Structures are given as C-alpha cells and as structure tokens.
Amino acid sequence: MAQAVINPRIRGFLCLTTHPTGCAKNVQQQVALAKKSAPGKGLGNVLVVGSSAGYGLSSTITSLFGYGAKVLSVAFERPGNGDRPGSAGWYNLAEVHRLAKAEGRHIETICGDAFSLPVTEQAIAALKARYGKIDTFVYSLASPKRTDPVTGVTHTSCLKPIGPTYTSRTVDLDTDAIKEISIAPATDADVANTVKVMGGEDWERWITALAAADLLAPGFKTVAYSYIGPVMTHAVYRAGTIGAAKEHLEATAKRLDTLLQKTIGGHAWVSVNKALVTQASSAIPVVPLYIALLYKVMKEAGNHEGTGEQILRLFRDHIGPGATPTLDDQGRIRVDDWEMDPKIQAAVAALWEQVTTENLSAISDYAGFKHEFRTLFGFELDGVDYGAPVEIEHPLV
Ligand code: NAD
C-alpha cells in the first residue's frame, strides 16, 4: 500500500486533497463528545443516508457511540487509491468503522448513489439479513445532482434567487477579499431541478421502499435536515431555488408524518439546523461570510455549537428515546433556535453593514471559518504530523 506526504490544495470552496490521519482525528473528537454527552444506549437500528460528512456524520456517530445503535450507513465516497487520497467522507467512515469494530459496535456502510434503486435494494437486503426493522432513519443528503431512478433523467440543482437579480457582498475564498456578487434569477426549470435534487421526493421514496419491505418498526421516526437562515441570505437561500426545495422537503415531512402516525404510530419531521461549515454550505454564495460573522457573535455569546453538539441536542431534546419534540408553528424542529435568537441576529446584521476586506479578520471569525474548512479535509488538526508520510488506503473494516 502506498504512503505519501499530503498537503492541502485548496481552490475556493474545494479542497482537492485530504489527510486520512486528520480526518480520523476529527472523528475521534466527535466520538469522545458523543460518549461523554449521551446515555450510551436506547436506540435500536438506525439508518443514516448521507452518513459520511457534516450533519449526517454527526448523526451516525451520535447514534452509534452515543446511543448504542446498530447503524446502516449510506454515502457516496471515494477510497484512496495508489498515491491518490480518498475523499474526506471515506476517511471519516473508515475511522468510524475502525473504532466501532474495536469496541464491538455494529456499523455497515453502503457506498454508492443513494438516489439509485440498486443502493436502496442493497440497504433493504442488509437490513433484512442483519438488522431487522428500523427505529430511526436520518436523511442527510446534500448533492448537486440526482438521476431520477424512474425516468433516468439527471437533474442538477443550483443556488439562485427566484425573482430579481440578487446582489450582495460575499467573501472571495481565494483572495480573502470582500466583493460584490450578482446572481441572475432562476428559471422555472432551475427551480424544478433543484426541488428534484434537494426536495423530499427521494426521502419519501426511501420510506415507501422500506415500508413495502416491512422494515419500519412500530413508533418508527425519521428526520431530514433543513435550513432557514437570516435576512442577508434569504434571496439566495430560503427564498431561492434551494429554499423551494426545502419547502418541498418540509411539506413532504407533514404528509409522511400523518401517514406514519396512522399506519405504525410513527413520525416524520424536519429539523431546521444551524449554519455550519460543511462541504455543502461552503459552496453557497454569501453563506461563508455570514458564517464567519455568526461564529464571531455566537462564540462571544458562549453558545456556539458544531454539528456534533447540534445533533446531540436534537436527539436529547427532540427525537431520541423518551424525547417529545417541540415544534414551531410550521411543525418543524428548530435546533437553529440559538442562531436565530433576535439578539444574535441583530449583532450579526450590525457587523454585516460594517464588514470590509480590511476589517474582515478583526470583526468576524473568518480565521475560524477557514480553519474549520481545512479540518473538514483533515488539515490543521492538533497532534497530526503533517510532514510524515501517511497510508493512503484505509478499508472500511
Ligand atoms: P455535507 O456535504 O457535509 O454531507 C453530505 C452527505 O451526503 C455526505 O455524506 C455525502 O457522501 C452524501 N451524499 C451526497 N450525494 C450522495 C449520493 N448521491 N448518494 C449517497 N450519499 C450522498 O452536507 P451537510 O452540510 O451536512 O448537509 C446535510 C443536510 O443538512 C442537507 O440537507 C443540508 O441542507 C442540511 N443543513 C445543512 C446546514 C449547514 O450549514 N451545513 C444547515 C442546516 C441544514
């Protein structure tokens, strides 16, 4: 097996390399947090689709190490090959698997396109053979594309306003300069395609397939993740193409919830989560600047959370064993409540008005944003010797 010294190669919101030891370290930190903060038992079988990064990775770790669940994980990741590093999500799951095996916990991963029929069929076969009925299903996909398994048509999502051209300030992640961007309005086809990719259709398809295979346990719960966010990003997020998809996801949750309550005493919810640095959120125009300001304000207020803390709170207070969710007037769980606190939002809005290239580092946590972005790919973690060659190929044991 090949070893290499791996350095970060960053282009805007993409990092072209990954560091296996750093990714493993990230996972170890989240596992320690889950073990410290959750009861260690209480969940039976959990399916996580989109399990390898961001909110889905935290859902996997919280279920497996925080609640003693048996987890079936589904993600679209690439293993290391020769001297070419794998994707960060691959190394994350490799470490989750390694730690789970060492502790006698059960996780299996299906690596493939979750939008496709063969992957759903593989998941159903694995569940029937080695798990039994599912108690909790977390749907945490963030993808730019989806091939509809019925029509074979590939849909591409986009991040555009619906309505007039949107002009805003943003930060150029290559030059660290504040600049203006203008995004042309979406066409009807853009909206429909984004809803196809990021709306609720595929979540519902999974649940229908699992129900048909008689794999939903009595009292089954399912959750998918959504975002609302502040006024500054509304035109490009909540009132844009991705917002239309999130509205579709939320409407799907309501429909599924009614159906599941009637049939198996189950539930389907959307949880609105906080804006955090993930591969998906870094790619959204304007959002990185908002996150840099939000981090500054929330860290100063002492209520900043990462994906691990957010998911632990979601399980403890809303969807975990014995919890009854508190829902907003639209029927949604809100773990973005601390982000959306009017005092936090007013402080961020005031900084937003002042931010320039010159004062960016002083008035925002841009350094924190950049650091966290690099840690997603395994770089800049304490205790990792980045000058030493590392093994590229790590199997999912
Ligand atoms: P992420 O980019 O960190 O992770 C995406 C996951 O989806 C990965 O596990 C990836 O392997 C998987 N995936 C993508 N395409 C796939 C495919 N075709 N088949 C199988 N797996 C696939 O994303 P994230 O930011 O954690 O987002 C997850 C969800 O949380 C999304 O619905 C997002 O809108 C929502 N959310 C994110 C934020 C945020 O700030 N990051 C805030 C609120 C809600």
List the helices and strands and how they pair.
Blueprint: E1 3-4, E2 10-11, E3 14-15, H1 20-37, E4 45-49, H2 54-66, E5 70-75, H3 88-102, E6 107-111, H4 117-130, E7 134-139, E8 145-147, E9 154-156, E10 166-172, E11 177-183, H5 188-198, H6 201-212, E12 216-226, H7 231-234, H8 241-264, E13 267-272, H9 279-282, H10 287-301, H11 307-319, E14 333-334, H12 342-354, H13 360-363, H14 366-376, E15 390-391
Parallel strand pairs: 4-5, 4-7, 5-6, 7-12, 12-13, 13-14
Antiparallel strand pairs: 1-15, 2-3, 8-9, 10-11
This protein binds nicotinamide-adenine-dinucleotide (NAD).
List its traits.
397 residues, alpha/beta, Rossmann fold, seven-stranded parallel sheet, two-stranded antiparallel sheet, 14 helices, 15 strands, globular, binds nicotinamide-adenine-dinucleotide
Element order, helices and strands?
A: EEEHEHEHEHEEEEEHHEHHEHHHEHHHE
Helix vs. strand class: alpha/beta
Helical fraction:
40-55%
Number of strands: 15
Q: What is the number of domains?
A: 1
Oligomeric category: single chain
> What proportion of the residues form beta strands (DSSP E)?
15-25%
Largest sheet: 7 strands, parallel
The kinds of small molecule bound in this structure are: nicotinamide-adenine-dinucleotide
Q: Strand order of the main beta sheet, please?
A: 6-5-4-7-12-13-14
Using the alpha-carbon principal axes, give the shape. globular
CATH homologous superfamily designation? NAD(P)-binding Rossmann-like Domain
The residue-averaged pLDDT reads: 96
Quickly count the helices: 14
User: What is the CATH topology classification name?
Assistant: Rossmann fold
Please mark out the parts with pLDDT under 50 across 5 or more consecutive residues, or reply none: none
Task: Give the CATH level 1 class.
Answer: Alpha Beta
Distance between the termini: 16 Å
Known CATH architecture: 3-Layer(aba) Sandwich
Q: Which radius of gyration do the C-alpha atoms yield?
A: 20 Å
